[in-house]
Hints:
By secondary structure, the chain is of the alpha/beta class. The chain folds into 2 domains: 7-219 and 310-349, Spore Coat Polysaccharide Biosynthesis Protein SpsA, Chain A, CATH 3.90.550.10; 237-305. Helices cover 50% and strands 14% of the residues. The chain is built from 11 helices and 8 strands. The protein has an 8-stranded mixed β-sheet with strand order 7-5-6-4-1-2-3-8, with helices on both faces. Helix 1 links the parallel strand 1 (9-15) and strand 2. Helix 9 (237-265) runs antiparallel to helix 10 (273-305). The chain crosses the membrane at residues 241-262, 274-298.
Amino acid sequence: MTLKQLPRLAIVVPCYNEEPVLPTTAPILADILTQLIHDRLVTADSRILFVDDGSRDRTWQLIDQLRTQNSHFTGLKLSRNYGQEAALMAGMETAARQADYVITIDADLQDDPTLIPAMVTQAHAGYDVIYGVRNDRSTDSWFKRTTANGFYWVMGKLGVNLIPNHSDFRLLTHPVLVALMRCHETRPFIRGIIPQLGFPATKLYYKRQPRQAGVSKYPLRKMLRFALDGILSFSVAPIRALLVAGLTICGGALLMILWILIQHFRGTVVTGWSSIMASLWFLGGFQLVAISIIGEYVGRTFTEVKHRPRFIIQTDTYTPSFTAAYREPSNSAAVTLHLSQLRTKSGERS
Length: 350
């Protein structure tokens, strides 16, 4: 592989209050990138892009310090906290303007960064999507393992094509990035979108490591919200389930009325206080749940039709790190044209 054929790599690392882990994470990623450059697997101007998702600690200051120490480090600062998915989309959209390959990985490096060279090798072999998949969840609690397996089972039953035990550790080539940027959901469920794009994909397996410092940014509340996003983004099955449940309850009510009439003609007195109150409470609760689920879909439609930006970039040190005559990823003229249109739209939104 000649120098002109080498791909440019961007490693996108979303960060939210990651001050405790960045001093450990940055040198590890820098060493891996340096080795990739030395082995002539990627270009010398490849970058590590830290995306600060509105951190409240010194995360951005550390990113800025790293940039002054090593030209491979760059940063993207969002105007506020938009969430993990938005931070990933911001990093990938920014990196796609110059990079041929983009790897996303969490800042805590629980996902094995030593797998990165193998990902690049697989991309050279012709795969456009390389998933990092956990084959050992022994570091997770029983509750987290059980709920995760339950989530994948439910999503499979709903017809959503997910990669079990895959988080956000993956490599995407430039054509996949361009296709991904065409998805304009305000709250995208990236793990569900990428398999639907249909590009050649493969998996690499690894054992998830314990978090080296700091605390998890995904407590139970956020995990439940993430699971709900995945279900509501790809399936109307909950609404259909409400229809089936409603028809079932109506059928049961009709049977109950028939039974009451029979008892009335037989002269049996039915007090019915407990059964009536229980029925009222059950039906009232069911109606509230049904309205809430339908309201979630209506609310998401309301959010999408406003076409507000998914994120706002306050500071970008990645793009200026390249000269004005940087090399566009040379996939095809159509891809280059579409990327140019994406830049124009992004400028209008900003």
